[in-house]
What does this fold into?
Amino acid sequence: MFIAMTIWIIIMVFSVALNTFLCWKVEKSGVKRWGATGRIFKYK
Amino acid sequence: MFWYITVFCFYIFFLVWANLKSLKVAESIDDYTIGGHKIGLLLSIGTTTATWISVASVIGVPGYLYSSGVAAIIGWVAGWCFGGALLPIVAYKIRRPELPARTFPEFIRHRFEPFQKKSTLQAIVGFLMFVGYLLLVNIQVSGFGIVFSTITGIDYEIAIFGFLLFIMITSFGGFWSVAATDTLNTVLITIGVLLAGGVVWKLTGGMSRILETLSVTTAPTIAGGPELDKGVLTSPLGTFSFGALFSIFISNSLGTPASPHWVTRMLAPQNIKVAILQIMGTIFLLIFIMSPLIVIGLGAKVLIPSIPEGKTTDYIVPLLIQEYTPSIIGAVTLIAICAAAISTANSMLLHCATSLYYDVYLNIFSKKVTDKGFRRWLRLSVLLIAIAAVVLAIDPPWFIAMGFVYIYGGFGSAFFLVVFLGLYWKRMNRAGAYTGIIMGSVSYVMAKASGFATPFVIAVTASLIGVLIAVFLTRKPPVEAYEPYFTADVSHTTQKVNAAMRDR
It folds into this structure.
């Protein structure tokens, strides 16, 4: 059970890290049409 | 019975109301197929979560937890989660063009055959989608029928024809209707599984008691069947071999980001960031849905050590509701299962009909169609396909969760390389796309038919070799094919080509 739950949690953490990185890439691009707003998790 | 009828009436009322509202919003082809590329974050999270949670999740996963133990968490819960986690990689690129594709096969056309008048590639992908989603809708219908007939005592055949009505109501308004009803469905699914999980938690005495029982039980899954090995239900591999569990994990995970309905979902939000954040929100929400499902599946083994003869593990949730939950909780849980089936089936039905009508018929016969004509013909296609799926479900198919694994595996084998290489490798060209799709799907079917434990891995490897050979033996793709996915400001010719494709 511990191993199974750990795998699930690691994947969730990976997801958050990846999403944050991609949002940062959108911000870095500065393209408004893609969702760049000046703040990493702000989308409009 | 009073509670079941009351809760159901409220549910039907909302579905009809949401559909009528959406009918007014969905006017253009873009609105109908993809919500006009302007779906906001909350609606995106609502519809993505509801589509994610299908009958395979609500019935199939507890069924596998019941029969195979905690290994099902790795194979399905973590597998789907990993697949979802990879979706933003698709979203980051596919939502870049100023005029994104409306459907998945159309994206394949934009990327690989931008100059073709009739795109064979779009038609092939549309046809594969039609077959896959017809089977997936069929699974949802069967799952709903099993649960509904077991709990209410209504005939299975009547239940599945009743389901036809539900999916018609939610699909007729197009993507906006699907998204609006899905958001309510997400709320209902969450409440339903939390309540049912709470009942199981209370009756079993909590997770530590459940695990204690699982570690010593040898009760057969089906009464009269072979006894289980002691401790198998708490081992990470469960009743699977390493190869089988690995294959399930890979099919569920890598099949997800290449599945056409998920790729299409990345096209619906208003911009790339919303598409990415919707996945983050969904994965967070899923904690509150998957955790109770884990408690239900594992706890069921404590409450019902063996399933009566003649039933499969897909019946474990209905049996649990029937025997152990109070009427009101049973009614809400039944609605949750119904919502899970509807929210996945309506979305897949829409993809199924769109791929057949828009990507195959309109593409091959080069028909121009008005928005009104499009809506009318697409609704007719939805109706006919829904009837076909229900008629096919009169004889229930295979194991529900396993059916998803096969189809996701097939989609992944056919489209994984085409999607990822198409979005991230400029050199990926038309010949590579044909080779990838054909070799991937054929080798998956062959590997599966030959009984290999990891058909997905074999298919993707074979497909990769084929794609690399095809790409390097043929010419580079035209700049108009890949430019929109790599730069923000595309050239004038690319703009013209893209606009022409959308105008056809």
In short: Chain B touches chain A through 34 residues (CB under 8 Å). Residues 327-364 of chain B form the longest helix (38 residues). Chain B has a mean pLDDT of 87. The radius of gyration of chain B is 22 Å.
